[in-house]
Amino acid sequence: MLNIYRNTNEWPGFVPFAQFDLPESRRTFSNLRQDLDRVFGNYEQSRNGPFGQPSENSQIRDAGSELIVTIDLPGVSKKDVELTISGDNVFIRATRTLSPPEGYTAHRRERSSFKFEQAFQLPVAVESKTALANLQDGVLTVTLPKSPNAQPKQITVKAG
Amino acid sequence: MTQNIAETPNTGSSELKQRGREIVPAVDIYENDHELLVIADLPRVTAENLTVEVHHPELKIQGRVPSTNHKNEVIYTRTFRLDASMDVTKIEAKISEGVLEVHLPKSEPYRVRKIEVTGA
Q: In chain A, which residues touch B (CB < 8 A)?
């Protein structure tokens, strides 16, 4: 029997993990995290992702001949992003400094300034020289071509 | 502080649950003598996938991040209830760098005016 909790009010003190089906529990955690993020600001983002995991706003995708890393960075300008690639390590640092618009009174402030730092190891070697980074619509997209050895190859299976 | 804008919680349509993931975007609300300013973080949302609607008295912001796989589609939704002090015909919205700004001007009678005092 599966218990699925859709909001934090229903959250029981302790539930054995075995009772969760994975995608749903991840969703529950992510909802909970969103609520927490809103209460505490994106405090966890200042280091890694929440709970030591890669943050939810970043994704890495294998597109065959290249790896594509995307990170949500709304309101961050180009000059506040720093990207370092060395070998199969990628380090990304981005800062957002918000100040209330002049002459306005704040009613609600959920958006926060942040310092985002994330270091991760790529699953394959990449050609850092031909890597591309683009910041558009509040998203940083880093395209990392795989090194020749890591390119996908098709092996023909011979019948013996 | 005036109560000219209040939040309406998301209801989460069943259509949405099937299709994708709903996210409540972080929002700042500011006010000055002439307007309310609503600022929302909507990364990946472009102008063509964004709707800002007023069904009086509600202001609804909805941004969609399309995906080839519908399950991965992300929908940002936030709804606010406006009171009568806003001139809904003059609302302006723009999105840049994944940040939406909605300017809601106050209607004439609600604007703050300084009255010059003349001496006799």
A: 27, 34, 38, 57, 72-77, 98, 100-101, 103-112, 135, 137-139
